[in-house]
Design goal:
heterodimer, A: about 110 residues, six-stranded mixed beta sheet, 11 strands, B: about 120 residues, mainly beta, four-stranded antiparallel beta sheet
């Protein structure tokens, strides 16, 4: 019940495309859902996060869609660029983020020029 | 703001020796710090959570006597890998969280690559 399932494992899109990464969770106590971007050999960096009281959040080219009833959330990257090529992790936490993060398995995104 | 540093960025040590990794919050007071381990092409695995001035809470399956964590101040936490073996080779990442009244977000360090020969 503590797991966060992430798909796909890898994704290739052309420049300008809109990659979509999906995550699903079981624990209804989760109330904080961040997305992280990680480049090879670097630590993860927070991209955007959402709480279950909203269904969508946009920050720049990144959008989170949240479906509370389905217990799913997804990351959309608009107008993707080669520089977006990285590994993306979804995560979930209880108590508005004060509890430990449970990470998804990661998605390796490659944006071709 | 919200910068977390780690030192060293990479380290090579011989089997049987101990290695200490430092994690520092540079511009905020980190009441809570987390230590993760990441194998190639895998997700982050939480090893332990530490609160300043308290003993660390280790995740199930993590040997507390092997991975010693000290969170002695609001800006510094250390992870010591004792009697390191080749299977301890991994990418170790720390994260830090500010005081609960300020933010609940975790800020990650750049990671430390440990290679045990």
């Amino acid at each position: 019940q503590q797991q966060v399932k992430q798909s796909p494992q890898s994704l290739i899109v052309q420049k300008g495309g809109i990659p979509i990464i999906n995550c699903a969770y079981e624990n209804t106590a989760f109330d904080y859902f961040p997305w992280y971007q990680q480049f090879p050999g670097k630590g993860p960096a927070l991209l955007i996060a959402i709480r279950p009281d909203v269904s969508e959040k946009k920050e720049g080219r990144f959008t989170i869609s949240f479906n509370k009833s389905a217990k799913q959330f997804s990351l959309h990257i608009m107008d993707s660029q080669p520089g977006d090529s990285a590994t993306y992790f979804c995560a979930a936490s209880r108590n508005t983020g004060f509890q430990k993060l449970v990470f998804g398995t990661g998605t390796r995104l490659l944006v071709s020029p | 703001g919200a910068v977390v540093s780690q030192h060293p960025s990479w380290v090579i040590c011989k089997s049987g020796t101990s290695v200490k990794i430092e994690c520092r919050s540079l511009d905020f007071q980190a009441t809570t710090m987390f230590w993760y381990r990441q194998f190639p092409k895998q997700s982050l695995m939480l090893m332990a959570t530490s609160n300043e001035g308290s003993k660390a809470t280790y995740e199930q399956g993590v040997e507390k006597d092997k991975f010693l964590i000290n969170h002695a101040s609001l800006t510094l936490s250390t992870l010591t890998v004792t009697s390191a073996h080749p299977e301890d080779s991994s990418f170790y990442i720390c994260s830090a969280r500010d005081r609960p009244t300020v933010s609940y977000e975790q800020y990650f360090g750049p990671g430390t690559r440990l290679t045990v020969t």
